[in-house]
């Protein structure tokens, strides 16, 4: 452990707003967790109405507590839409803040712990948040009835105003304190769909004005409490490597560097601000111990994966006698696929702020897995769960990156904070910042994978057998979620979208094999569907070609007991003019896929440039996600989901040379840019089914839709991604 | 080293390493956090500010080069084009995560100030340096056209 070279007292900068002011939530979006204990909810104050999911204040504002992180998917507005509708509030009185970490109050009802992921936010909250709104409205009405001495049944509520035919009216804010004294109804009456005023219609996002004006303190990166120090960490260049030794002499001479610590994940450089921390790290000399590290190249790893698909591995799913059916097949279509590691690359790199005084710890960051992070922090810091509070704030994207099961960003900042105290520093907040290089080279990738598909056809061209083997590193195996998610030794997240397909294959077998590597892997927007949708939907087109059938008609023939899937496929095809001829030089491809409970079909239209590269001209999508809570946000998620998937399949890959990541930043891991973006048309199926996910389902179909359009244009089947490797970009 | 410049119309003196980027001076020294760190190598545009009205990447603009410069950031950008862009961004609900949008807006304002009626090709050329990982590009394009309509109206 290194000694303290500067004292924190030197670090105060007078032009910063104070730590206290920020902590008290004055800057919006931030909450003091201590203020929000269960006890505080037992009753309102004389003028305020406080319940776990909403607060009504005398200024007539209604503040929703979002139990889910909003990392761009519109979740906070979606949850607000639910309460505002049941409450009959006006849009302009609605506010939203993030709930504190409190699993009793704010657990995800699907997962049983507080956290956001799997496109589950609206699905698990749909009843809960509406009930909260309906209960609050009933209490406002009861309070008004009592005050006006009229029957509650005669009271009307609309756009934030409670009224009675006798002429009485009151705004929510005026009734808040009285309503808080009313009993909370055990089973509040919910509206019927015909009564909805916002759900399925329009409720503009609450965060766009702040995000369109550079508003301060929106993101963790911007959070600068008094006395803040910034740390960047030199981590091993090879996954599984360790620090052998280091020389921090030059780093310590960088003006602004405060101290340098060895921590389990590497060497942390602590500085007054971000730039000196980055410069200090550049000046570090570290010898790494790679004796236990992954030292293979990605080419060797993909070769191993291909070999593994030939082995039986773990049986995931079997119907019929695939082996016999395959032997009797008249013809076997063979397709082998491989997919690269992908980085998530959220625009805001990982960052966390922690203030730890040795007894209590307070965090500020875009926390995606509150309960896991909370427990991990308490364990790492050696303090009780009740001594840790987490203030969740808006996150600049995640796509899965902010919820690693091993909680490594949380554990790492705990190590930095402990090292600061051990070095004798007074407690000050510290922020660990990941640079873009740290982000792209830092692992936790979408797993690299290889897939072997064999499809048996009979003499009439009908599918008789479908064999699918995948090899990849499991995201779940060996993680904190293994016991719950892999009771039978099967990682369902690896083959979701394949083993549960609704295509009617008379015989089907799905196997998986697990690669061992030190490269950490993680869910990446749509998890297993990122590869299974591609494999299944390209294979469907390949079979259609083999049997001389139209790709849409062939899919419709094969979809069994899944009318919603057939419906989105028909809708997308119709809206895209599937049966109409294309202009010269244009080609179409189609894909349909169910993920996270939602159905999305996409028809892609591409053109070929003279140099053989493709331009994606237009994508027509059809979506069935149950009740479309906030239609414009659904459109936005499909637009964004298509763009996110498109960039990846066109040109993104993380490769390793002797274990060292070769892509380091957005120059070599180049994201989709505006000139790459197609025109997008989104059609939403009206539905009263329970709402399902929308953060991820737009992503899976775009890859295969493009691949199938490429096959239509060139006759080439792209089975190894990204497409840039085939000269298409 | 001491550098005197104008930021959002106000004279400021930066006491900073001349080899340090304007981005970090704005964010960490002046507490102006609207300008974002995205890549540090001028490959994403999240740090875009205006230097004498021209969009630049502040992560690759060194403080030592800025003596006498007039810098405008998202916090201070104003005028008809800026108002139209912000209004269009809000009404079309362009942002998702929002982290890149300061840079997007600064590039869009610079485009419309030079080219009040941009074509799609103009938009591609002016905006290709601004990455949005949420891929809000459909709405960015539409919002620029909408802002152009507002400027004519």
UniProtKB/TrEMBL annotation, chain A:
Give one GO term, molecular function aspect.
oxidoreductase activity
The record's section on Pfam families has: MoCoBD_1, MoCoBD_2
InterPro entries documented for this protein: Ald_Oxase/Xan_DH_a/b, AldOxase/xan_DH_MoCoBD1, AldOxase/xan_DH_MoCoBD2, AldOxase/xan_DH_Mopterin-bd_sf, N-heterocyclic_Hydroxylase, OxRdtase_Mopterin-bd_su_IorB, TAT_signal
Ranges for domain Aldehyde oxidase/xanthine dehydrogenase a/b hammerhead: 213-292
Q: Which SUPFAM superfamilies match?
A: Molybdenum cofactor-binding domain (SSF56003)
Highest taxon of the lineage: Bacteria
Gene3D superfamilies for the chain: Aldehyde oxidase/xanthine dehydrogenase, molybdopterin binding domain
This chain belongs to the protein called Xanthine dehydrogenase family protein molybdopterin-binding subunit
Per the UniProt record, the source organism is Roseospira marina
Task: Tell me the lineage of the source organism.
Answer: Bacteria, Pseudomonadati, Pseudomonadota, Alphaproteobacteria, Rhodospirillales
TrEMBL record, chain B:
Q: Which Pfam families match?
A: Fer2 (PF00111), Fer2_2 (PF01799)
Spell out the Gene3D superfamilies in the cross-references: 3.10.20.30, [2Fe-2S]-binding domain
Asked whether the keyword Cytoplasm is assigned, the reply is no
Where in this chain does the entry annotate a coiled-coil region? none
Q: Which InterPro entries would you find in this protein's record? A: 2Fe-2S-bd, 2Fe-2S-bd_dom_sf, 2Fe-2S_ferredoxin-like_sf, 2Fe-2S_ferredoxin-type, 2Fe2S_fd_BS, Beta-grasp_dom_sf, Diverse_Oxidoreductases
Q: Give every 2Fe-2S ferredoxin-type domain span.
A: 1-77
Q: Which UniProt keywords apply?
A: 2Fe-2S, Iron, Iron-sulfur, Metal-binding, Oxidoreductase
Q: Name one GO molecular function term.
A: metal ion binding
* Cross-referenced CDD domains: fer2 (cd00207)
Presence of the UniProt keyword Iron-sulfur in the record = yes
The protein in question is named (2Fe-2S)-binding protein
Species this chain originates from: Roseospira marina
């Amino acid at each position: 452990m290194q000694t303290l070279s500067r004292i924190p007292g030197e670090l105060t900068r007078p032009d910063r707003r104070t730590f206290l002011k920020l902590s008290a939530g004055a800057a919006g979006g931030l909450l003091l967790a201590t203020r929000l204990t269960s006890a505080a909810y037992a009753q309102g104050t004389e003028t305020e109405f406080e319940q776990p999911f909403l607060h009504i204040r005398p200024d007539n504002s209604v503040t929703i507590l979002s139990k889910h992180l909003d990392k761009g998917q519109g979740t906070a507005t979606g949850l607000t839409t639910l309460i505002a509708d049941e409450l009959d509030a006006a849009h302009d009185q609605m506010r939203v803040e993030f709930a504190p970490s409190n699993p009793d109050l704010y657990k995800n009802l699907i997962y049983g712990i507080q956290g956001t992921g799997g496109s589950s936010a609206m699905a698990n909250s749909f009843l809960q948040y509406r009930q909260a709104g309906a209960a609050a409205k009933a209490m406002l009405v009861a309070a008004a009835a009592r005050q006006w001495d009229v029957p509650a049944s005669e009271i009307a509520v609309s756009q934030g105003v409670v009224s009675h035919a006798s002429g009485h009216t009151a705004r929510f804010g005026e009734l808040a304190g009285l309503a808080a004294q009313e009993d909370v109804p055990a089973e509040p009456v919910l509206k019927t769909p015909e009564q909805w005023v916002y759900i399925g219609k329009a409720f503009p996002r609450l965060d766009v004005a702040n995000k369109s004006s550079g508003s301060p303190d929106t993101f963790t990166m911007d959070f600068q409490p008094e006395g803040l120090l910034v740390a960047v960490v030199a981590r091993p260049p090879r996954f599984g490597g360790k620090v052998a030794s280091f020389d921090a002499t030059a780093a310590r001479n960088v003006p602004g560097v405060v101290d340098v610590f060895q921590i389990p994940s590497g060497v942390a450089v602590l500085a007054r601000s971000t730039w000196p921390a980055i410069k200090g790290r550049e000046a570090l000399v570290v010898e790494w111990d790679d004796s236990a590290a992954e030292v293979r190249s990605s080419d060797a790893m993909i070769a191993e994966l291909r070999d593994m698909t030939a082995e039986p591995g773990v049986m995931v799913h079997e119907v019929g006698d695939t082996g016999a059916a395959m032997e009797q097949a008249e013809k076997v279509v063979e397709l082998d696929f491989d997919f690269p590691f992908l980085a998530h690359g959220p625009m805001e790199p990982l960052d966390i702020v922690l203030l730890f005084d040795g007894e209590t710890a307070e965090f500020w960051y875009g926390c995606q897995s509150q309960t896991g992070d909370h427990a991990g922090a308490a364990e790492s810091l050696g303090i009780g769960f009740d001594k840790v509070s987490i203030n969740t704030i808006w996150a600049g994207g995640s796509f899965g990156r902010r919820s690693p099961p091993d909680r490594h960003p949380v554990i790492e900042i705990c190590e930095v904070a402990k090292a600061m105290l051990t070095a004798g520093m007074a407690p000050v907040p510290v922020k660990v910042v990941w640079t873009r290089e740290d982000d792209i080279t830092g692992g936790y990738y979408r797993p690299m994978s290889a897939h072997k598909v064999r499809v048996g056809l009979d003499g009439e061209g009908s599918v008789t057998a479908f064999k699918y083997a995948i090899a990849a590193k499991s995201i779940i195996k060996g993680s904190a979620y293994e016991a719950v998610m892999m009771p039978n030794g099967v990682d369902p997240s690896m083959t979701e979208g394949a083993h549960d397909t609704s295509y009617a294959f008379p015989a089907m077998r799905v196997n998986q094999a697990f690669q061992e590597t030190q490269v950490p892997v993680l869910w990446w927007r749509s998890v297993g569907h990122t590869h299974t949708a591609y494999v299944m939907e390209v294979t469907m087109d390949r079979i259609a070609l083999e049997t001389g059938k139209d790709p849409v008609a062939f899919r419709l023939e094969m979809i069994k007991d899944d009318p919603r899937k057939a419906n989105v496929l028909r809708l997308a095809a119709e809206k895209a003019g599937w049966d109409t001829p294309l202009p010269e030089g244009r080609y179409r491809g189609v894909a349909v896929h169910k993920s996270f409970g939602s159905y999305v079909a996409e028809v892609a239209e591409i053109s070929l440039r003279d140099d053989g590269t493709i331009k994606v001209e237009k994508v027509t999508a059809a979506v069935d996600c149950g009740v479309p809570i906030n239609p414009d946000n659904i459109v936005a998620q499909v637009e964004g989901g298509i763009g996110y998937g498109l960039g990846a399949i066109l040109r993104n890959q993380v490769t390793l040379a002797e274990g060292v990541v070769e892509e380091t930043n957005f120059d070599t891991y180049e994201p989709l840019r505006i000139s790459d973006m197609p025109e997008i048309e989104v059609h939403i199926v009206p539905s009263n089914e329970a709402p399902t996910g929308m953060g991820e389902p737009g992503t899976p179909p775009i890859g295969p839709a493009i691949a199938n359009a490429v096959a239509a244009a060139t006759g080439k089947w792209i089975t190894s991604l990204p497409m840039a490797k085939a000269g298409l970009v | 080293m001491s550098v005197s410049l104008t930021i959002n119309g106000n004279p400021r003196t930066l006491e900073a390493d001349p080899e340090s980027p304007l981005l970090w001076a704005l964010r960490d020294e002046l507490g102006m956090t609207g300008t974002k760190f995205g890549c540090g190598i001028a490959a994403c545009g999240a740090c875009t500010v205006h230097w004498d009205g021209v969009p630049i990447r502040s992560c690759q603009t060194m403080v030592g080069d800025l003596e006498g410069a007039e810098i405008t950031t998202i916090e201070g950008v104003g005028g008809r084009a800026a108002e139209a862009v912000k209004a269009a961004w809000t009404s079309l609900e362009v942002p998702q995560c929002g982290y890149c949008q300061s840079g997007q807006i600064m590039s869009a304002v610079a485009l419309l100030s030079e080219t009040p009626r941009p074509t799609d090709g103009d938009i591609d050329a002016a905006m290709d340096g601004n990455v949005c990982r949420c891929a809000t590009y459909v709405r960015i394009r539409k919002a620029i056209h909408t802002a152009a309509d507002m400027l004519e109206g």
